[in-house]
Each structure stands twice: as C-alpha cells, then as structure tokens.
Amino acid sequence: MRLLNQTAGRLSRRRRGPLAGLLVLLLGLVMTGALYTVFSPAQAQDQASDTEQVAQGRELFLASCAFCHGKNGQGISTDREGYQVGPSLVGVGAAAVDFQVGTGRMPMMRSGAQAPRKEPVFTDEETAALAAYVASLGPGPAIPSESDYSIEGLSEEEREEAIVRGGQIFLTNCTACHNFNGGGGAMPRGGYAPSLHGVDPKYIYEAMLTGPQQMPNFSNGNLDPEAKRDVIAYLTSIQENPEYGGFGLGGLGPVSEGLFAWLLGIGGLVGVAVWIASHTTRSKKTKVEA
Fold first, then answer.
1. What is the spatial distance between Cα 107 and Cα 151, in angstroms, rounded to a whole number?
2. CATH architecture of the domain with range 144-243
3. pLDDT in tens, 179-207
4. Is 181 annotated as a binding residue?
5. pTM of the predicted model, to two decimals?
6. Is 197 annotated as contributing to ligand binding?
7. Alpha helices in 145-216 (DSSP H)
8. CA 61, CA 133: separation in Å to the nearest integer?
C-alpha cells in the first residue's frame, strides 16, 4: 500500500510539472505587461504623438511643399524649362526646416537668388509637424534647445569669456559677409548676407548648423555647440551696446563713413562755395549798374 501511494505521488508531480510551469510563465508575462503599462505610459503616448505629428507634417508637405521638393522630399532638380526648382530634403534634418519655415523664407513666393525673410505662413505647431516629417526622411541636425545657445546660468566671468571667444570666431569667419557688427552686406550673384540684428538666437544657431542658401555649413564637427553659443553671446552683446559715436551709418565702417563725408561734407562745402560765388557776382553787377 505504501509503495502504491509513493508511485501515485510521483505520477501526480509529473503531471503537475508542465502545467505549473506554463501557468508561471503566463503569470510572469501578464505581470511584466502590467508593470510596463503602469510605469511607461508616457513613452507609449509620446510614440503615438510622434506618429501623429509626422502624419500631420506629411499632409502639410504634400499640400504646400511637394510641388518643388517632390512627394517624398527627394527634390526636383529642374523644371520643363531647365531651371532648378527645389533641392532634396532627405537628411537636412528638423533644424533646417525650423529655420526656413519659422523665418518665413519657405515657402518662397517666387524663385530668386535668395529667399528673403518674411512673416511665417505656418503656425508653430505646423512648423514642428513639417520638421518632424522631414526628419523622418533621413537623419539630420535636430532643432536645438535653449540650453544649447543660452549663456544663462554662467557666472559673470564665464559670460565675458564666452563673449570674447564668440567675437574672435565671428570676426574670423563671419565678418566678410555679415559685417563686424552683424549688419549684413551684399553678396555675388544677387544674394546678400542678412542682418543678424533682432534675430532669434535659435535661428542664428540653426543657420550655423545647417548653412542655408549661400552660407557655409558650420557643423558641430568644425564648430562645436559651445562655440556657436559664444558667437550668439557676442552678437547679443554688441546689439545691447549703444552707439557711443552717434549715428552708426549701418555699422559698415570706413566705407560708409567716407561716402558720407564725400557726399554730405565735401558736397555741402562745394554747394556753399557756389552759393557764395553766385551772390558775390550779383553784388558786383549791382554796384556797376549803380
């Protein structure tokens, strides 16, 4: 009898073994899923939100941008007459879209040597959606955060050092086009370097990062984020300083000052000399007639 009980117990344990293991496995999977749902709802929501944003951006792109840049952002090199229409946007990144669309340069009203800044056509939400869609086409520079270009949180000494470094970088790399004080200037083939006065620091950072139109590309490989921040700190500092010398004449230096002296200074003296000579001649004629 005892032998039979032992045999029955072993058989019962053998039968319960596979079933119990399956139940433990299912219970573990259920608990893992429940814990993931409890502790990671924001991530799931973010993924859904990103998908919706990309879908919204694609709709806007097809309605407003595909005519020049192609339905898939691949670009349209030439039109029927052989003129360039729009470059490829694959790999330009969200930063390029945020700059071009956020400053109103895109969409262009008409083809030209350069896209001028104007009032934005799209809202901030629509611009973010377009940037998300273009970013999904290929890896590229992301939109910078405020911490990338702000010197808030630095000590007074660190701020001064950042401004000095930024000035050295700007004077070495940027003054040939933008002037020493960021006032802008003319460029070949009908282009121009726009003024940097009053421009949002985010857009200055994005311009350095992406190199729009005729501007060279200062990627993080050849100008690191800290250097870009220092350039912005320098531009902000010179805009905050008053013009101690009076009328700045656009900040163009000796060229504009010399032109001002020739046209108004010497030109005014010539005018006064002619006026004096004409009145002297009249007075002599009056005396002779008398």
1. 32
2. Orthogonal Bundle (1.10)
3. 888 888 888 877 889 999 989 999 999 99
4. no
5. 0.70
6. no
7. 146-149, 156-173, 175-178, 201-210
8. 8
